[in-house]
Amino acid sequence: MTDAKPALTTRPMTRLARGSRTWRDLSPLLRLLLLTQLAFNIGFFAVLPFLAEHLGTAIGMAGWLVGLVLGLRTFSQQGLFVVGGALTDRYGVRPLVLAGCVLRIAGFVWLGYARDTASIIAAVLLIGLAAALFSPAVESEVARQAVLWEEAGHGPRTRVLALLSVAGQAGAFLGPLLGALLLAVDFRTACLAGAGIFVLVLAGHLRLLPQHIPGRERIRARGGLRELLRNGRFLAVCCAYGAYLLAYNQLYLALPDEVQRGTGSQAPLAWLFALSSILVVTAQLPVTHWAARRLDLRRSMTAGLLLISAGFAAVAAARPAGWTGIAGLLPAAVFVVLLTVGQMLVTPAARAWVPELAPDGRIGLYTGALSSVAGLIVLAGSAATGALLGGTLPGWLPWLVLAALPLAAVGLLPRRVTRRAPSAAT
Question: Domain span at residue 365?
Answer without folding.
Answer: 221-420
